[in-house]
Design a protein that fits this description.
Largest sheet: none
CATH superfamily: MFS general substrate transporter like domains
CATH class: Mainly Alpha
CATH architecture: Up-down Bundle
Shape: globular
Structural class: mainly alpha
Strand content: under 5%
Number of domains: 1
Helix content: over 70%
């Protein structure tokens, strides 16, 4: 596939400033998504409900978030990415703040469903913009920034959510993040022109839409990419969602202790996301993806053991590194699949990612009926199989320069 041309490219300094703003918005979306799982024990106590019941709040958000991305990607292709992104960011700010008014777990779940529907137009469209603003062979670094922001949101959301909850309460958490989202919306206003120019609306019929999905899923490259995005997201969400409960049961930790133990989750991507992206551009995704999947397997298997708390915290950090070396690289491949409909391609990617997140949380929760050992063992075994298969599946994903020398400048 020929690497994408960059349309309507702004000046370098404008492009870099927009990239930083997109990273800020991405950070906040993931902060609020990941601040909920570690406070499941606290919400369970506050509403006198089982952790399994409270845990349903997580997939309630994630699955609806994933479904809505399909709609937002199509809307962006039709009416313009800037309109959809700004409306979604406004919905994120308002609905997150309104969650603080909940008087029951059912009401929290309802607000989380609405937030998932409203907030899901920001991150996928940020990834689409990167695909338009940067050529494929330079896309690893900016994608590294966005996935580093995701990782930072995971790290600080999971940590500060648990640490701050005893001091400002769960209601205070949602109000604080909602206010931050409102401020980010105001700071984004000067970038409307750049966003609008980067990606022009694309028309089309229902038949064009269906053919677009068939084209995305009809090639071996699309099938292996979207398939691995799904399985990998099931694994990571399933393990991460229940780490708070795992730490409470195995080590007797309270909210602050859980937050500190989770401190390493997201840190590798937050610190090294751009470097991982550069490495993918230089050495190829074929080399890094099996390593990332293998590290994820190793971390989950390590949690099966009776480890000291410090070592368990290191395993959680390795688990995060495994995520940072896989999902951003899959997204890089997706940005080259969409052709004239990048919103549709990335919408399908984020749909696959977040539906996997939601199902992973549900499946792991059901397996907990048989204990953490069984749940972790099954998840680690599946991830190991995916890691082994990736050695063969992603062999064509070699750097653009290397490919151009052997195939006349085409990306495999």
């Amino acid at each position: 596939m020929l690497h994408n041309a960059v349309a309507h490219s702004p000046a370098h300094h404008e492009r870099e400033r927009l990239l930083r703003m997109l990273a800020v918005a991405t950070f906040m979306i993931f902060f609020q998504a990941y601040m909920v799982a570690p406070i499941i024990p606290a919400l369970s106590n506050a509403f006198e409900a089982s952790v399994q019941t409270v845990g349903l709040v997580v997939p309630a958000y994630l699955i609806l978030y994933g479904i809505a991305t399909l709609v937002y990607g199509l809307l962006a292709d039709r009416i313009g990415v800037q309109r959809v992104m700004f409306a979604s960011l406004a919905a994120f700010a308002a609905l997150t703040a309104l969650t603080a008014t909940s008087m029951s777990i059912a009401q929290i779940a309802l607000w989380r469903v609405l937030t998932g529907l409203g907030a899901s137009g920001v991150v996928p469209l940020a990834l689409v913009l990167v695909g338009r603003l940067f050529p494929y062979e330079q896309r690893g670094r900016p994608l590294g920034w966005l996935f580093g922001a995701m990782a930072g949101g995971m790290a600080f959301g999971s940590t500060l959510g648990a640490v701050l909850e005893p001091f400002i309460g769960w209601r205070g958490l949602f109000l604080l993040v909602g206010a931050a989202g409102g401020i980010a919306l105001l700071l984004f206003l000067p970038y409307r022109r750049i966003i609008a120019a980067a990606m022009q609306p694309v028309g089309g019929t229902l038949g064009d839409l269906i053919r677009g999905y068939m084209n995305l899923l009809g090639t071996p490259r699309g099938q292996r990419t979207y398939g691995n995005v799904f399985v990998n997201s099931v694994f990571h969400s399933g393990v991460f969602t229940w780490l708070g409960v795992y730490l409470e049961r195995r080590y007797g930790l309270g909210p602050v202790g859980i937050g500190l133990a989770l401190l390493g989750y997201g840190v590798p991507g937050f610190l090294f996301g751009p470097l991982i992206g550069r490495a993918a551009d230089k050495w190829g995704r074929a080399r890094l993806l099996p390593i990332g999947l293998g590290l994820s397997t190793l971390a989950a298997a390590g949690l099966l053991l009776d480890l000291p708390l410090v070592v368990a915290a290191i395993a959680i950090t390795i688990l995060s590194l495994g995520y940072d070396m896989t999902q951003p690289l899959f997204a890089g491949i997706v940005t080259s699949l969409g052709d004239k409909r990048p919103g549709q391609a990335m919408g399908l990617n984020v749909f696959t990612l977040f539906v996997g997140f939601g199902l992973g949380s549900l499946i792991f929760g059901e397996l907990l009926r048989f204990g953490f050992g069984t749940a972790l063992g099954i998840f680690a075994t599946v991830e190991l199989a995916v890691a082994i298969a990736s050695l063969w599946l992603f062999r064509p994903e070699i750097p653009y320069v290397a490919t151009s020398q052997s195939s006349g400048g085409r990306m495999r």
